[in-house]
Amino acid sequence: MIQSSKDIDVAVFGATGYSGFELVKLLLNHPRVRLGHATSGSNPDANLNQLHPTTLDLPLCSPQSVPLNEIDLAFLCLPHGAGPGRGQEEAARLARAGVRVIDLGGDYRLREIDHYRRWYQTEHAHADLLGSFVYGLSEFHRTRIADATRVANPGCYPTCTALALYPLAEAGWLTEGSIVINAVSGLSGAGRGLKIPSLFVEANENVTPYHPGQVHRHVPEIMQTLRDMSGAEIPSVVFVPHLAPVNRGILATIHVPLSQGPSMSEIREHYAARYEKEPFVHLLAEGATASLKHTCGTNHTAISLHPCEGGLVVVASIDNLLKGAAGQAVQNMNLMFGLPETEGLPC
Amino acid sequence: MIQSSKDIDVAVFGATGYSGFELVKLLLNHPRVRLGHATSGSNPDANLNQLHPTTLDLPLCSPQSVPLNEIDLAFLCLPHGAGPGRGQEEAARLARAGVRVIDLGGDYRLREIDHYRRWYQTEHAHADLLGSFVYGLSEFHRTRIADATRVANPGCYPTCTALALYPLAEAGWLTEGSIVINAVSGLSGAGRGLKIPSLFVEANENVTPYHPGQVHRHVPEIMQTLRDMSGAEIPSVVFVPHLAPVNRGILATIHVPLSQGPSMSEIREHYAARYEKEPFVHLLAEGATASLKHTCGTNHTAISLHPCEGGLVVVASIDNLLKGAAGQAVQNMNLMFGLPETEGLPC
Amino acid sequence: MIQSSKDIDVAVFGATGYSGFELVKLLLNHPRVRLGHATSGSNPDANLNQLHPTTLDLPLCSPQSVPLNEIDLAFLCLPHGAGPGRGQEEAARLARAGVRVIDLGGDYRLREIDHYRRWYQTEHAHADLLGSFVYGLSEFHRTRIADATRVANPGCYPTCTALALYPLAEAGWLTEGSIVINAVSGLSGAGRGLKIPSLFVEANENVTPYHPGQVHRHVPEIMQTLRDMSGAEIPSVVFVPHLAPVNRGILATIHVPLSQGPSMSEIREHYAARYEKEPFVHLLAEGATASLKHTCGTNHTAISLHPCEGGLVVVASIDNLLKGAAGQAVQNMNLMFGLPETEGLPC
Amino acid sequence: MIQSSKDIDVAVFGATGYSGFELVKLLLNHPRVRLGHATSGSNPDANLNQLHPTTLDLPLCSPQSVPLNEIDLAFLCLPHGAGPGRGQEEAARLARAGVRVIDLGGDYRLREIDHYRRWYQTEHAHADLLGSFVYGLSEFHRTRIADATRVANPGCYPTCTALALYPLAEAGWLTEGSIVINAVSGLSGAGRGLKIPSLFVEANENVTPYHPGQVHRHVPEIMQTLRDMSGAEIPSVVFVPHLAPVNRGILATIHVPLSQGPSMSEIREHYAARYEKEPFVHLLAEGATASLKHTCGTNHTAISLHPCEGGLVVVASIDNLLKGAAGQAVQNMNLMFGLPETEGLPC
User: Fold this and answer.
1) D128 and D260: one domain?
2) pLDDT in tens, B9-37
3) With a threshold of 0.95, does the pTM exceed it?
4) CA D173 to chain centre
5) Of the candidates B281, B265, B273, which has an alpha carbon nearest to the alpha carbon of residue B328?
6) pLDDT digit string, tens, across residues D39-50
7) Which positions in chain D touch A1 (Cβ < 8 Å)?
8) ipTM (interface predicted TM)
9) Residue ranges of the Semialdehyde dehydrogenase NAD-binding domain (chains A, B, C, D) (predicted)?
């Protein structure tokens, strides 16, 4: 056996949040990657094992101390928004310095500047760069990602929802009435910030919807992607996210009205054909139902289809920290560097 | 202070399942009730503390050894269906013997015999008794329950859903399109039977829909109640129950299409008026969202209302073992015996 | 039935932490108590239902606005230590004003001022009051509590441990080698303060010892009580507390070396005799093992005894928020006001 | 890059329990292994994805259908004991057929036949083979494992405990009084069998000791290993295992009396030296405490040392399914086939 050479030099900006830490672990195990720098804005002199209960002995550094000319790719796992050390600024700084960037934050996902303003409720200091980022939903933009130098990694809810509905959107079957998306996320989706609802005692033995009825910032991202997939306007989407007492995972249960149109078996065949060759998207057998456990700890997406009166229920699950963040980021890196798409992503 | 006299003699048939055990605890703390007999079909000679981790020293007995002439009321917490020791038979035996009955099982909830046959997939050996049971949704049938000798205690999902939609049904506002109900239940809702999906390792760190799209046996019960409430046919209901890793509680997130009709403030006022005097139903303030924790460990129902494009999202929660089973049974007993409705039910 | 008159006026100082909220719920259900005032130092104008997910509509007030002459008893659920609004000051202010006090905090539990200084690492501004508080372990100081106007409610770990070892201490059987106490607490024991280890994602799927080997502030309290019980010095105690991913409960697993001395059946008989008439302490049958579930949601203590080579393993559990805090406080109030000891404490 | 060739053909006997399933996932990701056969005694015609919620499409087969001459190594994840399809028989059948075997069950761990009889409470039909198995604690028997054809993979509790105490045993510092081991295991340690205490509702929000004081079958295994490590008799061990509501992980909190002897810094230095070069054993920095999270999802062991009055508290954690079962089995396979010890085991 010849040991693979570790020849891609990467840095992780923001290695101490849940997504950043997950990404670090993937990269350390990736046969082709050398993780030379992992930054922390607030604890640049610490070791990762002082901030997380881990046996990994990984020294952190400040974002400013990363020698940009020595890295082939920068991953950004930073809070979104304007200001020093946040995603908007850092992604712009790196991109303008000619560094390849995969941004796991939300600052460069929406193409329309006023959508950004409205949903993120802040100005965008680098609106001119918005168009230069490819939306990194690997299965949808595979070839564009392979050629990209800047990738906006999708949000966790949008990844799960868009993959659940992609075959319907593409076939032009998302045209009737309201699409009702009820989704459940684990607590890592709420981040590592200190707030009462994230305390164990509050979240445990509880399930709680948040922002029901209101428009969550993931909705314009979902709408933008579904429009791109279908090449047409999408009827209204009702999205109700919930927190459930699990560490990780997203499950979306989606009701799609389909009073006319394709039969259930046509739909199933269309999904099967669409995802037949995808290494990370799985249509479950008839009778099976997707659950968090199907994908927890993996980069996979599980989808199940269920007929109902007047339509269809689609259930999909991903691991929010993997396919919904760090895993898809590695998948996109693999595409950008011409590696096998599954490299370094355990099955 | 004069100690309340314990003057109502009751028996619990089936005291060792989750609902039965919860009921036993409520009854032992009830100031007016003497719990003389608690039965177990499979362990009639055991003590409750040998079957559950509890400090309660409560001897069990066989169903046959309960002296029917000495009890004022029998609670039944038995598996539904035909055959000895099951709800259908035992409720009939007791009812025909002239004993007052509150049946927490599903055998006497549906008025239409063919609905029963279809959803419970078994024959009903005592179909002649179906009409003699009052459906025990306390807030809806309060006066009929007060006069009843036989009460069919509602299911947990139907209780939560019907109270969530009662004001809309009553006002005639449930007339458009599909009502999409996504509900989450704790594992105690799956009972104490031994099956793989109920194991800790399987259910923990998981959320799983069950029977999506298919019609669950709670759907005809929900439909029957909403029809009774509205006096009209109800458009289609899509119901997707999920298991979440909590011990107890039900949360229903319901999308109601309402493109024409009342304004949000009219709806809110109508709910407020409807439930103003109810001790166990609470409309949360604008901006708050109902969660499992609002009602866990209580007999309460929490409801929150949220406008959305083209309609309304109603969120409601109950404790499945209390308002969804044992608590509502005690509430109904209080009604039947002319006690304050909240007696023995902690706030 | 004659409705019990609610004739004891109480106030809760610090109603928004986990112990305070638990106490509020007990008091609202207590047949003899009128809870007229519940304070919050930081949110005096809020309603409890704005700070906790609850259907309880309970207005809060500032500590200063409680009319001390109108209350019969004040419960204090405040952070320990010196300074305005903390237990040391508030308890002193109320006590000096002649108000009966039950302090659920730690400021008045240790009789020796230098023990306080050492373990709480702060000065005590009201050391002169230390001797005037009765240590409120109900089962040990029942008659003194009945006559007391000031009670220092025990800590959760000391309550569980002291009741587990009381019969051994009393019999003079705690004389050999090190007593090794491994204890597990639910997260509510860590309070509602915002800190990384209390976040759901950190505590869930984790068990973590804290301060192993070091002396936790509960150790001098345990030692003081065991000395009082035995009338003699106690050999060394090794105490290792752990956090486990449950909301509530304390389980202590205690190894007691007993190479000489009583037989297992003598020990068992002694425990049985000691606790025979206690309403809230239960010696489990031989072969059974105490677990959190035995006491969760109740004011009870469950104890099981297990022989081992060279000694004895004692396992005990309580609910940290009930017998370990609010429940024992109500039990002590019942003693102080001549009520049945179990009044308002569900079995 | 040259793709590593997959040149080691393995089979997993018993692929559907928790350890077996974990092992399957490791082997599928191992760069040198081809997993040709995965058996199920009870569901030989099923696919793994019909028995577990997974996207893995892995057909199962019967144990009899595995062509023994085509495999280089057989892993056994079977229930222990005598009789067809159990570990005793299958390991003997494969070993006698000349197949290399790593047995994850307990049948070949104890060298003394009467120890086996006593603790496993059954006869051993192949006692003549006992001496031919190397005890597979990788860090202790590395060179013997490299030469072995038959390996008895250690139990989860013994692995955690033995690695926690190895430096003390080796140095001759385990000579005083009782070693008190309190250990906590996640529910996967109880297996996938159907029993009431393994139900979610029973285990959740609970912590429960099992067999306190009694001798668990892991005790003779721990004693045998500590004796081998120290070359001397070991004083008595008190072992109390507990179940905690987590899916995976073992934490051992061990009190070692050490009134005379080495200083804390000597002990720390000795641990540091012992484990300096071990890829999977980590001595945490002074002040840090080992927790489940340190090792969950990895093959690592985390150890922390804490002085206490009259001795030492050692805390150690492993993932019971990885270092405590499947991970250590792969580590042993790597040793047997001359691969880098960490191959296929994510950091």
Assistant:
1) no
2) 999 999 999 999 999 999 999 999 999 99
3) yes
4) 24
5) B281
6) 999 999 999 999
7) 2, 4-5, 31-32
8) 0.96
9) 9-148
